[in-house]
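Feature request, filed as a ticket because there's no other form

It would be nice if the structure record came with a short human-readable summary line next to the tokens. Right now we just get the raw output. Example of a typical job, pasted below so the devs can see what we mean:
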Amino acid sequence: MEDRDKQSSLGRRTVLMAGAAALTAGCAGESTPRTVSAKAQPALDARNWASVRAQFSLTSSYAHFAAFMLAAHPAPVREAIAQYRDVLDSRPQDYGIGFYDLQRSDDSRKAIAGYIGVRPQEVALTDSTTMGLGLVYGGLRFKAGDEVVTTEHDFYSLHEALRLRAERDGVVVRKVRLYENPATASTEEIVRRLVRRITPRTRVLALTWVHSSTGVKLPMREISQAVKEINDRRDRGRRVLVVVDGVHGFAAENATMSDLGADVFITATHKWLFGPRGTGFVWAGADVWPMLQPTIPSFSRQAWTGTPGPLADLNTPGGYHSFENRWALPQAIAFHETIGKATVAERIRSQATQLKDGLAKLPNVRLVTPRSPELSAGVVCCAVNGMEPDAVVQQLLVKHGISAGSTPYRESFVRFGPSIVTSPDEVERAIKAMASLR
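Raw output as currently delivered:
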């Protein structure tokens, strides 16, 4: 029975892989996606920020300082998604009925790898940061009594992934408070508080690069160096891994994985990259993937055939996904790289600095995010004296045409996110609007 099942499975696989191979070679005639029927998009001039903004369909009725959340797609991404969706809706057989999406997913993996400076076989594809957190913290090979050190400032999904793991098999989770006042946090203080909580049982530092609760950006290079010095005195089997939720630093900062020095990096792509919604990835070095047990069955070729291959593929969840979005990732990265990673990071940094400097001068506002770009990125958090954050957000939108947000935490703040879809003039509008609130 087992042999017959195996033969049947191999037969199905042969048919499906043949279909995938035909797709890889390209399709002509009826199989070619038709041109998206939408109004003509102005050509991109990557040196002109007005031209960059024109690539988005975002309404001009207000300034979009919350666009990094459910991020809008620029024209090349919208068009790619629409073309893939058109064929999926009309001729799904052309894409191998979605079962083997090998070539296009590989293209997305290669685009990600090039963007962050790693090898494609080190990248697992996911649908979100939360999925990546669940896969990593659910899959790390711990023993009962092993410790994970995290912080009090991280997002719900990270804390919940660790709580579920601790309940399952006795992993000990310890939380560290990295700063008393985020606005005055320092690199020295953050590194010192983290390092002193590392014990001989600590196996993982579970960190968030940029805290969405306060806008504090952790000094990852300094943290990674401090952990390396600890690991140099340990057996390799007991080393401490640095695992990073990077979603609010990814594409807002001009950094590669070697710049951060982390062992594992988890993110979605729909925020500061303005990539396709419902897409993300996990990166880990080739020496780290063996420490991760797959959580969800993979649909990779090696999983079906039992042949050797990258462990990142085995940690890429199988099943059917929003393929039209996943396959459009290369267009999102190409759009970003056409503008220039360093150019984008500077645009975000300069606007965030302008906003923080302006807010810090207002007597009715308390700036929460550090003013130094070394300890902050694109997220800017603040509070208005005597007003609840949600009330501030509502007034900003209704009275001033400013779209902002509030942080979904026990201690909530008003949150802005300057990006490639905002401008210095809009930052000034936001500062003046905040000054008028009472």
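Something like this underneath would help us a lot:
The two ends are 75 Å apart (CA to CA).
The domain at 341-436 is CATH 3.90.1150.10 (Aspartate Aminotransferase, domain 1).
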